């Protein structure tokens, strides 16, 4: 499955530190198959899915309990269902239109849409919208200029039509991302604050693995939420070390996350290495010092030396004892016996 399509189906999302994001992912395919419905739409706040709809079960549904009554309108979800059905019909048409731009008449093809908005603690906001076709970026919305920008040559016809004053799609969506989208995001944050605003950091552990030439240092951070975290290795308290291994934030079954950052070093006398962790659950960044373990071979050499010393001392003691015993026997043989003395 193409990476972008997989991204949209799974609803992979993220947020910058100290921010919240409302994101939507729509996917339509040209024909059933690959285990996918013909149309799928999901909504997320940060990493938490809040809405879902697909053509196999065509009803808009809340994905979390606190979304069931978030709108305070008993007809909200029925209205969302009707909107989703309209989007489903539009996206099925979009697949056929895109296929015609590529002179394709058959086969498995997909159209994807990702859009969302973000609000930061300082009050600033950001919005985006991107369309993809067959796993590649097709066109994107420039929210600063309020126009669509074609990424593929085949997207030029669509962008010209959507940017035209008669259609005005770019300006309409720009206003949505900067207005209604932010309002809904704030509403959802308020409704799900117990889950969205929680801050957890369970454990930070450092370890190492010694090879012939280098030492690998591992910094493992467990059970943190939200997802945004900064983890790095520092040498001698001032030099940031770059990791040659890609560090991936992985989900835990309980909804928290984990991360491991690894660097390769050649420790010298006087060097210090520490793992620095910055997370919203911490009042200040956490520093964990790595302390190298003593070489196990050194312990073996010391033990062998002690055993040899003990053995040598025992042998010397036995030698002295034996000599003394022999000297005593010789002296006793030369002494006159009481009987001969009387005689």
Secondary structure: elements and pairs:
Layout: H1 3-10, E1 19-29, E2 39-45, E3 48-54, E4 57-62, H2 76-101, E5 110-120, E6 125-133, E7 136-142, E8 147-150, H3 156-163, H4 169-178, H5 180-191, H6 193-196, E9 203-210, E10 215-224, E11 230-235, E12 239-241, E13 250-251, E14 257-265, E15 273-278, E16 286-290, H7 296-334, H8 338-342
Antiparallel strand pairs: 1-2, 1-5, 2-3, 3-4, 5-6, 6-7, 7-8, 9-10, 10-14, 11-12, 11-15, 13-14, 15-16
Largest pleated sheet: 8 strands, antiparallel
Percent of sequence in beta strands: 25-35%
The residue fraction in helices comes out at: 25-40%
Q: Which residue ranges are poorly predicted, with pLDDT under 50 across at least 5 consecutive positions?
A: 1-17, 295-302, 331-343
Q: If helices are DSSP runs of H or I spanning 4 or more residues, what is the number of helices?
A: 8
Please tally the β strands and state the result: 16
Rg calculated over all Cα atoms: 36 Å
Mean pLDDT equals 83
The geometry reads as elongated
H/E topology pattern: HEEEEHEEEEHHHHEEEEEEEEHH
Structural class: alpha+beta
Report, as a whole number of angstroms, the end-to-end distance. Answer: 120 Å
Going across the biggest sheet, name each strand in turn.
4-3-2-1-5-6-7-8
Please, could you describe this protein's structure?
With 343 residues, the chain is an alpha+beta fold. It is built from eight helices and 16 strands. The protein has an eight-stranded antiparallel sheet with strand order 4-3-2-1-5-6-7-8, with helices on both faces. Strands 9-10-14-13 form a four-stranded antiparallel sheet, with no helix packed on it. Strand 6 and strand 7 form a beta hairpin. The longest helix has 39 residues, at 296-334. The N and C termini lie far apart (120 Å).
């Amino acid at each position: 499955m193409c990476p972008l399509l997989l991204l949209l189906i799974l609803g992979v999302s993220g947020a910058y530190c100290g921010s919240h994001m409302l994101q939507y992912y729509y996917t339509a395919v040209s024909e059933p198959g690959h285990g996918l419905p013909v149309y799928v739409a999901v909504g997320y706040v940060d990493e938490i899915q809040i809405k879902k709809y697909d053509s196999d079960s065509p009803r808009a549904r809340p994905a979390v309990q606190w979304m069931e009554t978030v709108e305070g309108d008993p007809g909200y979800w029925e209205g969302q269902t009707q909107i989703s059905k309209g989007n489903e019909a539009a996206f099925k048409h979009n697949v056929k239109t895109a296929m015609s731009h590529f002179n394709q008449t058959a086969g498995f093809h997909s159209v994807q849409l990702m859009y969302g908005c973000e609000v930061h603690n300082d009050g600033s906001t950001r919005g985006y919208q991107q369309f993809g076709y067959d796993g590649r970026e097709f066109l994107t919305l420039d929210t600063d200029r309020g126009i669509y920008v074609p990424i593929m040559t085949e997207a030029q016809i669509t962008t010209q039509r959507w940017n035209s004053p008669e259609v005005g799609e770019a300006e309409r969506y720009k206003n949505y991302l900067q207005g209604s989208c932010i309002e809904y995001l704030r509403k959802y944050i308020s409704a799900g604050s117990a889950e969205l605003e929680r801050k957890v950091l369970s454990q930070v552990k450092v370890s190492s693995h010694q090879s012939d030439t280098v030492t690998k240092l591992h910094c493992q951070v467990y059970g943190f939420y939200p997802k945004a975290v900064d983890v790095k290795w520092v040498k001698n308290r001032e030099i940031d070390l770059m990791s040659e291994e890609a560090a991936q934030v992985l989900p835990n079954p309980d909804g928290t996350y984990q991360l491991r950052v690894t660097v390769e070093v050649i420790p010298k006398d006087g060097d210090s290495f520490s793992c620095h962790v910055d997370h919203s659950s911490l009042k200040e960044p956490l520093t964990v010092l790595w302390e190298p373990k003593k070489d196990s071979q050194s312990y073996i050499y010391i033990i062998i030396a002690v055993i040899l010393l003990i053995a040598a001392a025992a042998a010397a003691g036995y030698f002295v004892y034996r000599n003394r015993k022999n000297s005593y026997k010789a002296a006793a043989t030369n002494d006159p016996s009481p009987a001969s003395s009387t005689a």
